[in-house]
Amino acid sequence: MAPNIENSVKHSKWRSLLRRSSTENRDIAEKTGPDKWNMGILNDKETVEVPGSVLLLAPDRNEPLGLRNAPARTSHSSIPTGIVHSSVPPAESKKMTSDGKIILDPQPDDSANDPLNWAPWKRDSALVSLGLFCMVGGGMTPILAAGFGDVADELDVDVHTVALTTGLYMMGMGVGSVIFSPTAILYGKRPVYLFGAVLFIVSSIWCAVSPSFTSLVLARILQGIAVSPVECLPSATIAEIFFLHERAFRIGIYTLLLLGGKNLVPLVSAAIMQTMGWRWVFWIVAIIVAFCGVLLFFFVPETFWDRRPIPKVARKSSERPNFFRRYSSKHGVPQAGVPASTSTEIHGIEATPATPEPQQRNNAVRVGFAAEPEILDQSEEKPATPDTKRPVTPLPRAGSSSDSSAIPLSSKPAPAEETAAPADNKSPDKTPGTRDYNTDSESQSVSGARVAAQPAYTSTLRGMPAKSFVQSLKPYNGRLNNDKWYKVAIRPLILFSYPAVLWSAVVYACSVGWLIVISESVAVIYREGHPYHFDALQTGLVYISPFVGGVLGTAVAGKVSDVIVKAMARRNGGLYEPEFRLVMAIPVAITTVMGLMGFGWTAQMGDHYMVPTVFFGIVSFGCSLGSTTSITFCVDSYRQYAGEALVTLNFSKNIFHGLVFSLFVTGWLTADGPKTVYIWIGIIQLILLLFTIPMYIYGKRARMWTVRKNFMERF
């Protein structure tokens, strides 16, 4: 009974903290201060609410904490990451599934052109077409692994030099992700997919006809750039065409196809090299990619749809509604967190107050959060009048926690809190630089709050009938927002200053990178090493083991991790911390270190070929656990930056691990043997994973530190 009472007390404590206003919570924190420790995690010294923490109120309700402290995004992202404040009962106008059991998230527009409203066959065909393309692209990294010796003989180079074709290919993938991710955000994913497919075909043909090793290396770099959208964009596409309750299964399909490509394509390529030669591998790849390109052209239309709230601008009754008003009045989306029937009047935003007057926030007692540029203090500009003091419902922002409004933690700019205008102000002053709402993607200013206008692409489609199949084949739809390309491109690099992202990048790079290192040494160990002397096909069959291990690891990782974090959250009084995910580092360390050391040791000792092959599968199993853990920890810590974080993780894997190790690993293997090499690699893996301990202890404070510094929103 004692543990139940203790959990109940903790649960009540978190619930009571959540239900208080921000001012009350800060006052309590100042008087008593938060507990120093919870489940071995150091709490922040000044606040109990840290972005990333989630209060589990009931089995079907989660309450994100710290959203009032999280800075609002002022930039676009490739992945929609909105979070709805679950303490608010859903409005009657919320759309639900046909059985009425699930509220649709995100809420679709009343337009047949909204990707969420597409027919199921259209959305699933887009997933399958994209998945096949990802499967081929995912297998290109180790595609020559079984034939390093054949390439070396024909092009007159050493085997360890041929390994550069893998490392420089990964460098191309890293560079390509930094190029294509911001391009997709600004211009849409469809042109990026199509251009990548064309470039993929061209680079594959170039690889097939390369007359020299230098030419082959350059072709592989270009091929890496062409394939890079496979890693950084499909997750965003799935998030745009499927509802939240549909995504897990679809992302599982995508992950399985991508993982299957990394392990099965080398097997197929080994069979081709055995019978037709290594050049024919690239000819066949070009043919398959051409087929995938046709599928992309016909079945993967543009999936972008802007879901930001549409500001309603007051106009005189005699004014003729402009284009934007005509369509938004019919298909408009209510302000975030405000039911369709609720409205307010804030400098011309027509409505009636539906909530009590919010408590005045005392900025003097705020913890040192970074200044929010979108909030302008107008108290000095206009004297207070009785009209300006009447209750209004403030526009929500990421960082507000009113019990009566939803709190979106989205990738789109959030409106700031407003000061009400006099009731008789029928012609509000424009903030300098403000333009009409029918202007293409122009930033708006409503009473000092920066509110971005709806892009012409979405606002136009919202008022149109459903696109025909031929109309959806248009490869390019113009610029989708006005963000600066170089600023979007640099944001993933800024995330290296976030400790949680840095830890995730290191673990993810190692989780995928060690498999690439083994694939680069497979030919040396199994084809040239004593006592195996495999041919190309037999060497390719070795990849069945990591395929099985990877599939099992992917299936187990999510389930086991969820069970662990739910149990820890219950013991923590219902409060979930992203650091709970780090417990999975224990099985990751055991399996990867054991697998790496066992693989090298048994290979050099000349044990039966199945022994190192099984250890290869164990490494793959552990690496699947590691990659899943790193991604979930990173996304749970910074959901609003999930799109940029995926680019950061893939950039680290391709550049800092794939490229660097390819420069010396095969030469090191030849000089010292697999036993020494893989024992040292196992030690490196263990040392890196030991940093999980301080990450677990100080991770929560580190998250709050990044909120105060606010590095991302400064760019």
Written description of the protein model:
- There is one protein chain.
- With 715 residues, the chain is mainly alpha-helical.
- The chain folds into three domains: 115-304, MFS general substrate transporter like domains (Growth Hormone, Chain: A, Up-down Bundle), CATH 1.20.1250.20; 316-353 and 370-483, no CATH class; 493-715, MFS general substrate transporter like domains (Growth Hormone, Chain: A).
- The chain has helices at residues 2-19, 22-31, 120-138, 148-155, 159-162, 164-187, 189-209, 213-227, 229-232, 234-241, 244-275, 279-299, 323-331, 456-462, 485-494, 499-528, 536-541, 544-571, 585-605, 610-637, 642-662, 665-690, 692-709; strands spanning 37-38, 41-42, 54-58, 61-64, 443-446, 449-452, 575-576.
- It has a three-stranded antiparallel sheet with strand order 4-3-7, sandwiched between helices. It has a two-stranded antiparallel sheet with strand order 1-2.
- β3 and β4 form a beta hairpin.
- α7 runs antiparallel to α12 (279-299) and α11 (244-275) runs antiparallel to α18.
- The radius of gyration is 27 Å and the shape is globular.
- 51% of the residues are buried.
- Mean pLDDT is 74; it is low at 5-26, 57-62, 82-91 and 313-452.
